[in-house]
Amino acid sequence: MRLDNEPAAVLMGHPSLFEKQKEISADKIHSDDFQHNLMVLKNSQYRLDGIGLAAPQIGWMARVFCLGIDNNNRNRYAGAPDIPFQFWINPKIRAVSPTTSWGWEGCISVPGIRGWIERPSHVDVEGLNEKGEVVQMRMTGFAAKVFQHELDHLNGTLFTMRVSDIHLVVPMESMKYQSQWAKKWPTPSANKTPPGVLSPSR
What we know:
Elements: H1 32-47, E1 52-54, E2 64-69, E3 83-96, E4 100-107, E5 110-120, E6 122-128, E7 134-140, H2 141-154, E8 169-171, H3 188-192
Antiparallel strand pairs: 1-2, 2-3, 3-6, 4-5, 5-8, 6-7
């Protein structure tokens, strides 16, 4: 398929967000339609003010996502570090760290809320880039969290399914007033950790 130039975001409840995406054959990566869709995915990430975006979130049923953070799209995660923009095609996690970290997550497809989520602190990953080249690396810190969040999309999982306690979900609007929250609510670490920053404890 060939995407429109500015597709709408697919929102929670749509069946495409709960499907496991199939791997892309290498011969398709260099096709005009596929390369066009990659550029639409990238442009949509920035247009929708995301730090990552998976293909199903814009109606493209493909095992592809992109991620990256700079001053043009840091608004929703002010404390996040720079992450070079990158495409991931057929991404896989080969190994995960025994240690974990916690952080606030939101999603273009789940507007209006954030969840306090635990994930492995680093992951060894592998996939293809936009040229069809094999890429292997260790993702650490906030980049590891974003990678895992986007990979979840390709497996039909939303961040809300990762929330361990309903009390760890808050309205996005309330994040503006985090400094005024009740002491230690919803947890001591969640109380004082801004979006884009990680904590070693719940």
